[in-house]
Amino acid sequence: MNNRQFVIIYGNMIRIEGRYSIMSKRKNKRKASVFFRLLSLIFSFVLIIFTIILIGQIIRLNVLPLFYVIPISIIIGSLSLLFIILMLFKAQRGFLHFVLTLVIIALTCVYGTGNYFVYVTSKAFKSVTNLTSKVSNTLTVRTLEGRAQSEKDLDGACLGYFTSMDSSDLSKLTDSLSKDNVSFTAKAYDDIYDMVQDLYDGYIDGILFNESYSGVVTAVEEYSMFVNRTTPVYSMTYYTENQNQKQDSINDVDVTSVPFTVMISGNDSYGQFNENSRSDMNMLVTVNPNTGTVLMTSIPRDYYVPIAGLTNGYDDAELEDKLTHSGLYGIETTQKTIENLLDVDINYYIRVNFSSLINLVDAIGGIDVYVEEGLAVDAFYADTTLGGVSEGWNHLDGKRALAFSRERHAYQYGDNQRVKNQQIVLEAIIHSLTKPSMILNYPKFISALSGAFETNMPADTISNLLKFEFGTFPDWKFESYALSGFGDSRLCASLGGYADVVLPDEESVIVAKEKINLVEIGNTSNDIE
């Protein structure tokens, strides 16, 4: 083979290889094009599914007025159809097809996120209206720290018990100990503080105790370290049916046109709502949707009042106690006690606790409260590490908001100022919820809302109230009033002994009744001082 033939053959080989390379590139390009078109078709299909689900969820959520739902649904559906039609029929390939595919992918992600938020919102509404099915009751045997290691050390011990303790609770606890071959001598106490003091002094070896009373004991300064100084060496938990489960309010009304009153009861506990505990905060919120007036009426936790349904067993006379102790007998007892006090029909209740407030305030990015001159606090009594509040505006996170709403030791008028602080916190939360920044905090807020409180307001009523808010955006006018009283020491039925209480100022009770009535008939509560 001469050089000329070699060059010709080599040139032909290069041309063949070049043609093969071009054909290979074209083939790969066609494969990529097919893959991209397949990807666009898949996302188009997913987008159609997400669109249908999103529109369905918005309709089923039922919190937006119809004149919002219709255009929103049309916009959501039209955007999906527009981009899908353009991609499939007007731009089947090329750069425009690529851009439209990216738009469809982005829209799919947006609708997917929207579906998630609507779903968790619906789930949150269900959680707050699904009342706890069972009430947890924890019974313990407490001894001083280090006195006993297990129930076996209780054999032959002298154990005190509080006579106001439910007889069935006492029987359950003693029977359970007997099954473990623990025998003991029981000593009865009519005064719970006498029992705790005898435990401290060593006159008894331990106490048979219902843990719902731990807050009652620690509320007294000399026993504030009760939980730390004692150890539950034996414990049992049983559950009772919640009588309020799935029972909507019997006083349900059309909240978009009829004035209504909501009781907010704040438990002095953390975590779930499956335990009865003291009602640390008691506030009535009376709303007139026709005038846009919202009246907050606060009642001191230590108000000395007849507790609904609590009698001595000999007659029908109701025994007097601190209002806060009504929570030990259930939310319905607190509601009925306040209804009797103020001669008002409470339409709904909302039950919250310490965890609720902390989580909600943190979820909305904190709240701003205004502290008037002379009401600054150097350090909160509940937790001195949190600091306090100064005169003027203060930004509070969840823990500081809770400490501020519970503070009473720093004020001359203690409990009376505390209820005013609680009103300030509630109003600040409502104002924060209406800020544009709530859009950014919405995911955190919904997460905190789930399990943050429970209410007997029916789900349909909540939906109607939200539709009313979004449909009319009423200019709510907030008014407030706090009942007052005088400090004294009185016999408390739940304690079996004397404790510091607040005797109601009958004049302030009358004023509260009149203010609530004024708001209900369409006037302002400020018409009376």
Automatic annotation (TrEMBL):
Residues that span the membrane, as ranges: 34-59, 65-88, 95-119
Q: What is the protein name for this chain?
A: LytR family transcriptional regulator
Print the keywords alphabetically: Membrane, Transmembrane, Transmembrane helix
* NCBIfam families assigned to the protein according to its UniProt record, in alphabetical order: lytR_cpsA_psr
Q: Which residues form a coiled coil?
A: none
Where is the Cell envelope-related transcriptional attenuator domain positioned along the sequence?
Answer: 278-433
Q: What is the lineage of its organism?
A: Bacteria, Bacillati, Bacillota, Erysipelotrichia, Erysipelotrichales
Organism, by scientific name, is: Floccifex porci
Q: Which family does it belong to?
A: Belongs to the LytR/CpsA/Psr (LCP) family.
The record's listing under PANTHER family reads: POLYISOPRENYL-TEICHOIC ACID--PEPTIDOGLYCAN TEICHOIC ACID TRANSFERASE TAGU
Concerning InterPro entries, the annotation shows: LytR/CpsA/Psr_CW_biosynth, LytR_CpsA_psr
Database matches in Gene3D superfamilies:
LCP protein, Periplasmic binding protein-like II
